[in-house]
Structures are given as C-alpha cells and as structure tokens.
Design a protein that fits this description.
15 strands, five-stranded mixed β-sheet, Solute-binding_3/MltF_N, Iontro_rcpt_C, signal, alpha/beta, Basic amino acid ABC transporter substrate-binding protein
Length: 255
C-alpha cells in the first residue's frame, strides 16, 4: 500500500504541473517578463529617487513598450559599464539609458530602432568667448566617461589630450563647471537643457557646435536576441502610432 500511495501521489503532482502549464498559469506569465538595466544618473532620461524608484523619460518609454506588447518589465539601476556587461552575459535582457547607437557598439550588441534623436551641446560660463569646442583648446573639459561627449572631445583634441576630465555621470561634470574646476562640459542636449532649467541662465550658456553630428538612442539587447528585439520594435512602433510616445516626450522636453 505504501508504494502504491507514493506512485499515485507522484502521478497527481505530474498531472497538476501539466495542467498549470497548459492553462497559462504563473509559469507562462513569467516567460513574458524581461529584465532591463539602466544607469539612473542621467536625468531627465533616468533618475533614482530617494525612495529608490526609477523615473524619467526612458523609464516611461520602456514601460509603455512593454505594456503595448503585453509584457512584464522590471528595471534595475546597474551603472553604465556594468549595464553593457550584464546584457552581454545574459544577466539582463535589455538596457535603456540614453544609449547612442554606434558602429562600435553594434559589433557586440543589437539595438532597437531609434527612439530619440540627440545632439551634443557645449555648456560654458556666460562670459566665455568660446564659440566652438575647438576654442576650448588648452582648457579643462568635463565629460561623462564612455559617452559620445567624451568621444567627440577626443576626436577634436586627440585621445591623449590632458584637458579631458572624465566623470562617472554628467551631473558631476556640471557641478565642477559651476564650481570653476572645468571650463566647459560636453553632453547630450536633453541632459544639458534639463540642467539649464536649474542653473542661473545668466551665468551659463549653451553652444551648438556645427561639428557635432546628430545621433540616435536605442535599446540594447544581447547580440542575436532577435525575438526580444522584434517585440521591442513592435511595441515602440505601437506607442509612436497611438500617441503615447508624443505624450511622454512632451512631458519631459515640451512640444
């Protein structure tokens, strides 16, 4: 009897598991969830509030995309470099963090369709005579390490130029500009314009250098993850067509 009861119990457990899978229970729901990383130090695109909540343009965009595709999404603050590594190793399914689509990055990762067009801007003191990035030759220039701002500055002055000061995040570079430790900051337009609202505009000004080319932000996924990429692109297209994207964009950047 003891052996028969054990056999019947095992069969019942197998049957229950099979029924759960067929009925689209929790296991099926979990399959539609994807984990996303970000560097939450880049407002207004991503920011970590005091209570730990992640807010910003990118956060609302990725949640809207997930909702449009009927997926669950969890977003985690990882930092900049760890984000790329986590996506490459498969610890994260995707990353969104005001990430420029570049040829070098496309060698190791796949990107979604562009969701934001950006351009570098130069932030300098209002009394500065600087008109282009080249005018800062011999000066100290603040950039966020590993970003396009750093790339265009190195392209202008050379990779070994001693005047480039790299920071973990753009707010730290701008803080040093305010305190007179650097002579200018090169960063994405969305971020710089956001901080200009908080700075005294009589003390600082923005410069659009004609040499700065337009760039596009994309959502990064592991190389070859075409299934997730299709879902992200599909969701992005849906929110662009139904007006959701425009609503989010207006909230952070105006019309």
């Amino acid at each position: 009897m003891k052996g028969k009861k054990g056999f019947l119990l095992a069969m019942m457990l197998v049957l229950a598991a099979w029924m759960t899978a067929c009925s689209g229970g929790k296991s099926a729901d979990h399959a539609t969830e994807f984990k996303v990383g970000t560097d939450a130090q880049y407002p207004p695109f991503e920011k970590q509030e005091g209570d730990g909540e992640l807010t910003g343009f990118d956060m609302e965009i990725i949640k809207a995309i997930a909702k449009a595709e009927g997926m669950k999404v969890s977003v985690k603050h990882t930092g900049w470099d760890p984000l790329f590594e986590a996506v490459k190793r498969g610890k994260l399914d995707a990353g969104i963090s005001a990430m420029t689509i570049t040829e070098d990055r496309l060698k190791n990762y796949d990107f979604s369709d562009p969701y934001f067009e950006a351009k570098q801007l130069l932030l300098v003191p209002a009394q500065s005579k600087v008109k282009t990035l080249k005018d800062l030759k011999g000066k100290q220039i603040g950039v966020q390490s590993g970003t396009t701002g750093e790339e265009v500055t190195k392209k202008t002055f050379g990779k070994t130029y001693s005047g480039i000061r790299g920071y973990d995040d753009t707010p730290a570079a701008i803080e040093d500009l305010v305190n007179g430790r650097v002579d200018g900051v090169v960063a994405d337009n969305g971020v710089v314009k956001y901080f200009m609202k908080q700075l005294d505009d009589q003390k600082f000004k923005l410069i659009e250098d004609p040499s700065f080319e337009a760039e596009n932000y994309g959502i990064v996924v592991k190389k070859g993850n075409t299934e997730l990429l299709k879902k992200i692109n599909s969701g992005l297209k849906k929110i662009q067509e139904n007006g959701t994207y425009d609503q989010i964009h207006s909230k952070y950047f105006g019309e």
